[in-house]
Amino acid sequence: MTLENPDLLSMYETMFKIRTFESKASELFADSLIPGFVHLYLGEEAIAAGVCANLTTRDFITSTHRGHGHVIAKGADLNKMMAELFGKQDGYCKGKGGSMHIADVEIGILGANGIVGGGQPIATGAALACKMKKTGGVAVCFFGDGASNRGTFHESVNMASAWTLPALYVIENNGFGISCSIEKASNVTDLSVRATAYGIPGVTVDGNDVLAVQEASAELIERARKGEGPAILECKTWRHHGHFEGDPGEYKPLDKQEEWLSKDPLPRFRNYLLETAKLDEGTVKALEEKVVAMVDASVEFAVNSPEPDIESLNDHVYA
């Protein structure tokens, strides 16, 4: 699929929106304005943006504890997201879910999930629903390299393969499951080779190259839409910060940290837009200014949102 400049700019806007939101969340957490844990997507923006560029509202995603990037790329409301991080009434979960539990079923976001590997069976079920209802929809499951070692991964992929479900399992291999390096947890170089055991395609790409991610996922998603079954897409990347905000990340070798920071997906794609796609610098800057204003407005929205009323404590706890 040949991408036109508006498509390229849209992907950059998504990436920049994620980067700006996450940078602001990091700042607010450091200032003790955001309660609870926060796991940021800084450095991995190209994956969510590249994959979700191929999705529509009929498609579903499941996310992880590091889920802000996925839900932003799928179209989540920044105001509701920021209010949820603040634990406020106007948040997606009325302030009860926090960073790890943002969902918007109406646009296909089946939820970020604090349970490692918890989204894999949910996405498989959503793919089954798409097939049974003949909607043409696809379910995309985002998860990390650590979750690829969970039983839920193998059970889900096996079922999706056996039933030829329209699913894409996206492994965001950032090199670490918390502080355990992938080299200590797996004896294969490319996690995508596990697809061979289930008779489905397995593809590994540079997860910091949004164009590579978009192209590979477009092919696998289209394949799923045509009824040809699931696939595994491994995107190799690096989280800039520790596992959670407050984690100094001392387990990450300094030379590798510096190497990966030099491959930051945002300046890399920005340079491509200006030098290869020949987009105007002013156009890109105007887009960036618009996004910064949106994120600043989301903070103002969150600050002004009321605290949840104590009488609502038991509301929306059970379906």
UniProtKB/TrEMBL annotation:
Pfam families: E1_dh. Keywords: Oxidoreductase, Pyruvate, Thiamine pyrophosphate. The keyword Transmembrane helix does not apply. Its cofactor is thiamine diphosphate. Residues 14-310 form the Dehydrogenase E1 component domain. The keyword Oxidoreductase applies. This is Pyruvate dehydrogenase E1 component subunit alpha. It comes from Desulfoluna limicola. The gene is acoA_1.
